[in-house]
Structures are given as structure tokens and as C-alpha cells.
Design goal:
Among the domains are: 90 residues, FAD/NAD(P)-binding domain (3-Layer(bba) Sandwich); 75 residues, no CATH class. The chain is built from seven helices and eleven strands. The chain has a three-stranded parallel sheet with strand order 1-2-8, with helices on one face. Strands 3-7-4 form a three-stranded antiparallel sheet. Helix 2 runs parallel beside helix 5. It is elongated.
Length: 237
């Protein structure tokens, strides 16, 4: 990571929807990267059902990379593939995987889903280890906000700026429509940013919303969930 990347890094507050194996794995990775993680599970417990789950060397590698206590998952290490006769049950062929770890760097684990989930959950939420422990909230339902998807217009869109007024908002979609950039303009007297510098710290969302009490409610709601709120001064001669 170069110096530019390091200077632009910042801690995020990340919400993960779903407390299954995938959610816990994501939580471990994100907490180790230095972020604050909250897991939201719609049921009154976070668990798994089902039978075994295979974890080949490429998956086992990440368990070790993340500092997961693999022994808590009580795995069986795969060492052979045995093909048996349908009627007699006698071995027809045996494929030896005794050199699997030597070839691929890690063993091939076979977990029960419930044990694997508990193992990952412990790692995500325990005090020990790298990063801040993840938080788990059960009985939570993720609900869509029902906002207009302006990215479908494939356009630069403008609000205000008519009649010589300085109040104006410009919307520029990017990242395949997953990110909406809003450029918000208002007169200087509506906000004191005399000490503002380019690339400074993010400002509270309340400061962004304050100059726009009568703004279109759809756009206002978009701004209310905004991130990376960074004002700068624009001088007009």
C-alpha cells in the first residue's frame, strides 16, 4: 500500500445483513481491516442448519490468515477419496490425498455447518484478535428505503439554480449506478467554512441538510444517508 492509499484510509462503520457463515466471515475480514462491524440477523438467533461443508486449501488458508481457531470447528481432514461397490460396499478405487497439504499449502477440512458457524462467530466477536469485536443484533429486519433510483436515467441531473439563485444540487451517478455523487451549492452565509481545506475531515450530515429545508424529499432522503461529506469554497468573480 502506497503513501497515498495510507493517507486516504479511514475507519468505516459497516452493517452486514445476515448472520450466517458468509456474514461472519465478512465480519472477521472487516474487523481485521480496522473497521467497526455490526451484524444484523432477522431471526432471534444467528446460526446454521444442514450437514457438512467442505473447506479446501484455498478456504483453509483464509481461516489461518484470519486467526480463526480451526480446532473449535472440530473438522475432519480429508485424506482419501474412496469409491465403493454399490452392492458389496467393497472399495473399487482409492485416491490418496496424503500429499494434499504439501501440494497446496493447507489441509482440506470438512466441517459441520453449525460448528463452522460457531467457530467463525467466536472469532468475529471475541475480544482477542486484531481489530474491534463485531456486534451482533438479532430480530432485525432490513427494509428498503424506497428511494428513487436516479442512476437509471443515465444522466447528470440538476435541482435549483434557476432565477439567479445560488442554491443548486448536481447529481452524477457512477460505479455502475451503485454510487451517487451529489454536488451541493449554497450561499456562504448559509454555512461558515472559512477554515475549510480540500480533502479535510468529513462533516456531519446535519450540516449538509441544514441549508435545504424545502428540498425535494427524495433528494433530501438521499443526502440524509450520505457519506464522505466534504465542503469546499467556490469563489465566483
Amino acid at each position: 500500500m502506497g503513501s497515498n492509499d495510507e493517507s486516504s484510509w479511514r475507519r468505516l462503520s459497516v452493517g452486514i445483513v445476515g448472520g450466517g457463515i458468509g456474514g461472519m466471515a465478512a465480519a472477521i475480514s472487516l474487523r481485521r481491516a480496522g473497521h467497526d462491524v455490526t451484524i444484523y440477523e432477522r431471526h432471534d438467533f444467528a446460526g446454521e442448519v444442514g450437514a457438512s461443508i467442505s473447506c479446501a486449501a484455498n478456504g483453509t488458508r483464509w481461516l489461518h490468515e484470519w486467526g480463526v481457531d480451526v480446532a473449535k470447528g472440530d473438522p475432519v481432514i480429508l485424506r482419501k477419496l474412496i469409491n465403493r461397490d454399490w452392492k458389496t460396499g467393497e472399495p473399487v478405487s482409492v485416491y490418496d490425498l496424503g500429499d494434499y497439504e504439501k501440494r497446496w499449502g493447507y489441509v482440506y477440512n470438512m466441517f459441520h455447518r453449525q460448528y463452522m458457524h460457531a467457530m467463525l462467530k467466536d472469532c468475529a466477536m471475541q475480544e482477542e484478535g486484531q481489530g474491534t469485536p463485531a456486534k451482533l443484533k438479532v430480530n432485525f429486519q432490513a427494509v428498503r428505503l424506497g428511494l428513487v433510483d436516479y442512476s437509471k436515467d443515465s444522466a447528470l441531473e440538476y435541482w435549483g439554480g434557476q432565477e439567479g439563485k445560488w442554491d443548486k444540487i448536481v447529481l452524477s451517478p457512477c460505479n455502475g449506478g451503485r454510487l451517487l455523487s451529489y454536488y451541493c451549492f449554497f450561499p456562504r452565509e448559509m454555512g461558515d467554512y472559512a477554515n475549510q481545506t480540500w480533502g479535510g475531515e468529513d462533516r456531519p450530515v446535519e450540516e449538509l441538510l441544514a441549508p435545504y429545508p424545502h428540498l425535494d424529499r427524495q433528494v433530501f432522503s438521499h443526502l440524509a444517508i450520505g457519506k464522505e461529506i466534504r465542503p469546499w469554497r467556490l469563489w465566483v468573480q
